[in-house]
Each structure stands twice: as structure tokens, then as C-alpha cells.
Design a protein that fits this description.
Strand 1, helix 1 and strand 2 form a beta-alpha-beta unit. This protein has a seven-stranded mixed β-sheet with strand order 3-2-1-4-8-6-9. A three-stranded mixed β-sheet has the order 5-10-7. It has helices spanning 19-29, 51-56, 73-83, 102-112, 130-140, 169-175, 184-194, 215-235, 246-263, 270-287, 290-320, 327-331; strands at 9-15, 37-44, 63-68, 88-92, 96-97, 117-119, 122-123, 164-168, 199-201, 207-209. Helix 8 (215-235) runs parallel beside helix 11 (290-320). It has 337 residues and is α/β, with parallel strands linked by helices. It starts with 8 loop residues before the first strand and ends in a 6-residue tail after the last helix. The model is unreliable at 332-337 (pLDDT under 50). Helices cover 48% and strands 13% of the residues.
Amino acid sequence: MNNQGKPYFSVIVPVYNRRGEVRDLLESLSKQTDRDFEVMLVEDGSTERCDDIAQAYADKVDVHYFWKENDGRSIARNYGIERAKGDYFIFFDSDCVIPPQYFEALKASLKKQPVDCFGGPDAASADFNDTQKAISFSMTAFLTTGGIRGGKVQLEKFVPRSFNMGYSRKVWETVGGFREMFSEDIDMSTRIRKAGFTITLFRDAYVYHKRRNTLRSFSRQTYVFGMSRITLKLLYPDSLKLVHTLPAVFVIGCATLILLAIFWRWWAILPLALYVALLWISALAETKSLKIACLAILTSFIQLGSYGCGFIKAFVWKILLRHGRNIEEEIAIRKGK
């Protein structure tokens, strides 16, 4: 605790039917080398409540449990913020596991480089299953969208994501809370940047992110990411960059190469084969596993394909044909979900 007897950090975690994940998250938080934080666990109308799990960790973690009617994860985060006491608000997803040195590293980074908004990367823990490790690779590799999402090589300004994001109380008082919409973290980061605050990536403050544990749910998630990029373009006309169109270009390019190989020359498929080979080599070098490297090809194609298809559908429907929801409806799209 700081000199005022209040925590330096307030950790905000929205939860919806994630008992097992909450247990793993609280277990990791109980092992932190710096304990100057509180945890605001906000259960968003879950039918499988985790209040007993929170109570089991009450003697190890300064955890505050809240249950509210289901309104969406952004509303749940705002609910936690309103009741938090810390100088900084830290946002984790319930499917994260936090390395023991996280808050020690974060506090050191803030002391060295004081900023009002920041985020960190994610990685796969050694105990994740093979599918989770493959998904983690496809979400962080430069050959997929790692350059868009804050990988080691970045193709755009860093945008913190809600699985590992933080900002000061001053930001909240100036900008307000999250809006209930898809890609609410990108919307929040855009509003923070437009308000004149600096956003920084702290690479040492990383988390282990389990992400979706089935290929079907992963595909649905990335499809929504693609659609929401068009929503963000409607909200912020200058936010859509060329790099954001790459998954859509990938989908169109793959379809074109396959058709050319079928109806023209077989060797038209060679560029796609080369990309598959590069993916496999990169995944093998990173994971040291033949199985995960092969799975990574599948998860990478799912990620890029689903994102690209969602982007193309939303672009045609909302931009070219000018159909669909208006902006107010877009912002409220997840309410009650």
C-alpha cells in the first residue's frame, strides 16, 4: 500500500461464467512480488458465480467481489472503476494468468517513464495446451497480425488491448469509461490519444493469455474483430490505415491464387505455398514443437481468413451499400449480451 493507505493499482476484471479461469487468475495474483494492488472482480450476470472462489483467496489477495445484472463487459469494467481506490486502473481479461513479477516490472517502468496510459504484450505459458499455444502464435506473429497488435515489430502506433491495459485516474476523470461496443479497447485508446495523453508499450509487463480454447470460438472472435474495424472507421474516419486491410487482401489473394491454380496454371499456388512454409518455419522456431507448428498454420489461416471476411462483409454492407446500424446502435451493440 502507498502512503495514503490505498493501493497504487486497482485491477479491474469483468467475469462471465469463467470459474476455472478466475481461480487461475487469482492464484497468479496471489504470487506477485509486488502486492500494492487491489482486485475488483465484477461478475456480469453469471449463472456460474465465482464468489466462493473470490472468498477462498481473500486472505491471499485484496479482492473485492461484485455481482451485477448482465450489461456487457465494458459496463462491468466501468462498474469496477467507480468503486476502485487506486491511482492506476489495470485491466485484465479473466482468461489471463499474470507472471509473478508483473506489478514489480510495471511499477519500475512507470517510475522510469511516467505515462498516463500503457499496455503490455501477451504470451503463451508453458502449461497452455497445444491449441492455445498455436492461437497465441497466430495472434502475435509478424507474419499474421502481430505487427498490427503490438508485436515485436509494429506496423502502426501501439494500441493497448483490454487483456493487458492500464491508465491513470486522471485519464478516467478526463475521458470517461469504456463504451459498450466491439473493440472497445481500441475505441478507448483512440479517445485517450485524442485527449492529448501519451500511450506507451511496456514490454516487461506481459501476461499469459489463454485466449479462445476452441477453433470455432477463435474464428468467431476474429470475425467480429474484422467487422468492428469498420465500426471504428465510422466513429473515427481517419483511424482506418492500409495495414488494417491486410487480412482482407489475404483473403482475396488466397481466393485468386487458388482459382488461378485450378483454371490456369498449377504453379500459381506457389506464393501461397511459400507463405505456408514461412509460417511453419517461424512457428517451429518459436514453439520448438512440430505439432504446434502445424497447428499454427491452421490457426493463422483461421485468424486472417475470419478477420478478413468480417472486414470485407462490414465494408461492403456499411460503407459501400450504407446499410446496417447507425453509430449509436453500434456503440450499444453488445448491451445485454
